[in-house]
Amino acid sequence: MLKGKHLIDPQDFSVEELDEIFDLAEEIIKKPEDFTNVCDGKLLGTLFFEPSTRTRLSFESAMLRLGGKVVGFSEPNSSSVAKGENLPDTIRTVAAYTDIIAMRHPKEGAPRYGSQYSDVPLINAGDGGHQHPTQTLTDLLTIRVAKGKMTDLTIGLCGDLKFGRTVHSLIKAMSRYENVKFILISPNELKTPKYIKAEILDRKSLDYVEVEKLEDVIEQLDILYMTRVQKERFFNEADYIRLKDSYILDNAKLKTAKDDLTILHPLPRVNEISMEIDSDPRAWYFKQTKYGMFVRMALIAKLLGVR
Ligand code: CP
Questions:
Q1: Residues 162, 28: Cα–Cα separation, whole Å
Q2: Strand 262-264's sheet: what is its strand order?
Q3: What domains does the chain contain, in order, with CATH numbers?
Q4: Does any ligand 1 atom lie closer than 6 A to the CB of residue 135?
Q5: Are 122 and 111 in contact (CB under 8 A)?
Q6: From the alpha carbon of 138, which atom of ligand 1 is closest?
Q7: How many A from CA of 56 to the centre of ligand 1?
Q8: pLDDT for 30-82, tens place per residue?
Q9: pTM of the entire structure?
């Protein structure tokens, strides 16, 4: 039963609950006209303490397409946060006005802390370099549609695996499916955090390798999940500049890739996928952004218990 739950971490929901969300998202994709009024009278609060295009606008589009309404801020300086209001008071206030909240925050753990003060469902829309569970719902739905399965896959995660919260969430989520092999492709300084390896990959004895060169492994991959180097998480600009173009996927690099490779990227893209790839049928990242709206429609409907 998903009604009334918070979503803070990708593992807050069971695999069966995730399937319920994906089944509903696929129903919405097939017949969106059947869902235009299911959230009549409901209000979504969007609290974005950090910039966003896809997550905020897909949440807002999702609620509007379900017949609900949206209030919120995209910039904390336009709210009483700028006067020093603390997070619990902000959350209590918005929970009093709305039926469901989506919140992005630069501090890791802020959504979990905030959820303790919310008596309406609170959804983590990304917290620092930690987790981004609704991006993971988006990624999993895209994999389910592209591959027709979630098992027996080799997935390459490439780029900034240290700060990229979407990668941390996706590893957690994919670790629950049978026979998934992870190939972690990053510069030495941007490797997957030790806690993810220890708590997820090692603890579950999953099949994974860490490599530096994409060209060495690309032919093995069923899914290639590219990520940008997260400029906003670096302490030192010189390090960012040195590492930012570590990987640039182009036609030459794709030469040895499988014909049915699925290329994903949470976006925004900076320079890590050449625009020449965009018309390749293996590029799924713009379809992925659209699935992000449909899966958030399904999530909102489930957490509100309107379906
Ligand atoms: N994928 C993602 O989180 O994009 P935004 O930062 O634009 O929301």
A1: 35
A2: 207-211, 180-185, 153-158, 223-226, 262-264
A3: 10-131+291-304 (3.40.50.1370), 134-288 (3.40.50.1370)
A4: yes
A5: yes
A6: 1
A7: 8
A8: 999 999 999 999 999 999 999 999 999 999 999 999 999 999 999 999 999 99
A9: 0.95
